[in-house]
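**Entry details**
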Amino acid sequence: MSFSCKAHVFSMFLFFLTSFTLSQTPTPPKALVLPLSKHAPSLQYLTLIHQRTPLVPLPVVLDIGGPFLWVSRDLGYVSTSYSPAHCHSARCMVAGFFSRPRAGCKNGTCILLTENVFTSKLSAGDLSEDVLSLQSTNGLNPGPLVLAHRILFLSTPGFLSQGLADGAKGIVGLGHGPLGLATQLPNSFNFTRKFAICLSPITNSEGVIFFGDGPYVLLPNIDISKILIYTPLIIKPSISMGREKPHDFSYEYFIRVKSIQVNGKDIPFNSSLLSIDHRGRGGTKISTINPYTVLESSIYKSLTDSFIREGNVAMLSPIEPFHTCFSTKYTDNNTMNRPSLPFIDLTLHNEQVFWRIFETNSIVQMGNDTACLAFVDGGLNLKTSIVLGGYQLEDNFLQFDLVTSRLGFSSSLLLRETSCANFNFTSIA
């Protein structure tokens, strides 16, 4: 089936979804906001949603490229606003059209297959709908709570939540498919299909997720929407469960990286690895599932060799999961970006647009005057050549514009004397 046909069906789905979920509040919000925190033991990022009637708080793990919200029913599911999606209903048929494998049917309920991406466990889940309660925002502060009605999600068996951060009840996917909250929430409230994330590295401080357009204001009164740099988002063919399906498309977010530089110097490797081939292999994606950036082996070796040479560092034994570790004994630990350690640039769709990775996002301090380069060797047979992981995204503001298919990014907010922990959650608009 052609991509144009998929796009037509997707448009029909959005119209159908909007007709059922348009906000029932007198003045629909222009944007929504959720807190985002880092769970140190698992290195997962969690947010808190409120679902059901009466409302129940549910900690869920963020998967920025996940296809939908799934929630474990391990303690039972009680809600007067809950409704299953019936087999052969419009919602089941359209949701199944975009799922891999296609939707099934059990006891009259629409069934989709889902995966815990941290454990690779698979399970069937009931396609269902219920209300979500989220906080509105004017971009400066949180505002009144609003209800989003008939939000589709998967109700899954309890075992599927094993391997998630303590207390997490599921995974919230923000992928660009029709079941992702990045699509459902804008259609529920009739605002622009944009969302933004800002991951805080500090476990006792909250980062932030915005749904909708800016302003996105962080203390001290800095509107981050005014400083973003833009690059196109790429839709790539999907490779699912070991089977290549050239007419399916991934829900994840990819960008075009043309080259990598260390201290302004290109590192040598086979640049064809940066392109996505006809089977969907290669390229660069953004992930909140991987705690650190994963590189194809030849790219990893070239990066580490260049970093060691440019940084003139004294190598030490590897510390898992890192292979490139070195002494920091003779550096000034009070300096944010020590001049002895190089910066890394990802050159994007043209040479004037680059994502600069400074020391705070490239180096992990391991204690005992030891640091490691925060990149992981992913081997020679990666499906995706570069997977930008959570550590490299922390204190970087990212806006995903699903209308124009572009990514806005800030590089490190620390250079602008703010951080992802600086949204004012304490004041109500």
